[in-house]
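> call design_seq(struct)
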């Protein structure tokens, strides 16, 4: 049943895909390709060749043991998100503005100031999380443990560096005479930020944001899609080797690691087996976090669905290391919207939100284009967590700052 479900997902996508690379429906399929299709096919391939596992813990996540309920949940949510998004893309989304980038320029002084803000933010983050020696001598432990208590600074650094990568790509695209000093300064700061924030994901995000001026016009084909997927997997393997301090030192070990990393459906299956469908059980978690800022305390693990469930199923990970497993959006729907028929309401509303952003991506200037692409990529995080997270409040405040700052950074030019 697993492979048949994977076939349905691939068939539906190929038959009705949006050929515009940054269409919301494409990121929906990418999520299910990463967390369902790819690991499922990989598992059955390894089974077919009688693979001898080399990792110390052997085979994990037996796809043949999944419940039908978990498999059908994934198929159901995929079909809803994909169908709603494709219909909305066809119905309300505008065509690309071919002259958008010719209408703007980047002010060098404002760009320099922004690069410097990110650089000093990164230096401050290094200092408060242990210092240079700690980051160089014990990268994995520092990355996983020392960031606790500095989540807001880390978040600002992540969004700021994402925006820096976007502006750098925009600058390269629109300026006829590029300042190599500015370019190399910005590039160096991005390398530093990638090191601090997890190379595996950051390199992918920076590449996307830098490429936005070209991606917004890009048309995706099957060959291009497969090529991008393979490149992403190679980058993932390289960064995982680095992040694990060389533990995953062979292609065989890295291949097996994929099966344990893309594990969200197994986490969802645990919930199906142990809990009943509920209404609004965790949807109030972000509010509890917001209330802590005005002096109303609550436990940290009650601020996010994945934190809460990690504290139940993997208590040592959360209470000793502050790490979390990432439960999928299917779990949030299961615990907050009860029976399957009611899941369609939040899925449709979020699809509508993303497609409205997509439809006006060229209308309100470069910063708004960045906000759309950030939301586009954030869609991947939504599929491994919550539609509304406590950090979204700060996201809105950052967006307001970027819109205001964007007036100083970008200037319209007469064509």
């Amino acid at each position: 049943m697993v492979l048949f479900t994977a076939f349905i997902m691939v068939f539906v996508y190929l038959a009705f895909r949006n050929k515009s690379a940054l269409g919301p429906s494409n990121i929906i399929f990418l999520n299910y390709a990463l967390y369902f299709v790819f690991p499922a096919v990989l598992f059955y391939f390894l089974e077919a060749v009688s693979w001898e596992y080399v990792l110390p813990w052997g085979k994990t996540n037996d796809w043949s043991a999944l419940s039908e309920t978990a498999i059908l949940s994934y198929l159901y949510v995929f079909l809803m998100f994909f169908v709603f998004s494709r219909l909305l893309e066809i119905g309300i989304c505008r065509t690309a503005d071919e002259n958008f980038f010719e209408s703007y320029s980047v002010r060098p002084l404002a760009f320099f100031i922004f690069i410097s803000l990110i650089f000093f933010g990164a230096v401050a983050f290094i200092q408060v999380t242990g210092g240079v020696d700690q980051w160089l001598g014990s990268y994995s432990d520092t990355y996983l443990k020392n960031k606790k208590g500095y989540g807001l600074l880390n978040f600002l650094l992540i969004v700021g560096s994402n925006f820096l990568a976007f502006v750098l790509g925009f600058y390269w695209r629109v300026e006829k005479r590029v300042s190599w000093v500015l370019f190399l300064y910005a590039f160096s700061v991005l390398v530093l930020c990638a090191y601090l924030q997890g190379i595996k994901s950051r390199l992918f995000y920076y590449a996307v944001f830098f490429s936005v001026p070209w991606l917004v016009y890009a048309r995706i084909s099957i060959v291009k899609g497969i090529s991008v997927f393979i490149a992403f997997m190679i980058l993932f393997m390289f960064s995982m080797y680095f992040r694990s301090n060389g533990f995953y030192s062979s292609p065989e070990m890295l291949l097996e690691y994929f099966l344990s990393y893309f594990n969200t459906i197994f986490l969802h299956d645990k919930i199906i087996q142990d809990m009943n469908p509920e209404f609004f059980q965790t949807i109030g978690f972000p509010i509890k976090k917001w209330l802590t800022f005005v002096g109303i305390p609550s436990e940290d693990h009650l601020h996010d669905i994945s934190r809460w469930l990690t504290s139940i199923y993997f208590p040592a990970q959360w209470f000793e290391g502050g790490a979390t497993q990432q439960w999928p959006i299917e779990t949030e729907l299961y615990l907050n919207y009860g029976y399957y028929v009611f899941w369609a309401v939040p899925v449709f509303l979020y699809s509508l939100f993303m497609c409205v952003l997509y439809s006006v991506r060229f209308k309100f200037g470069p910063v708004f284009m960045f906000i759309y692409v950030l939301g586009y990529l954030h869609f991947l995080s939504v599929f491994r967590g919550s539609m509304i997270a406590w950090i979204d409040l700060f996201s809105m405040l950052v967006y307001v700052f970027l819109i205001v700052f964007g007036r100083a950074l970008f200037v319209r030019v007469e064509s």
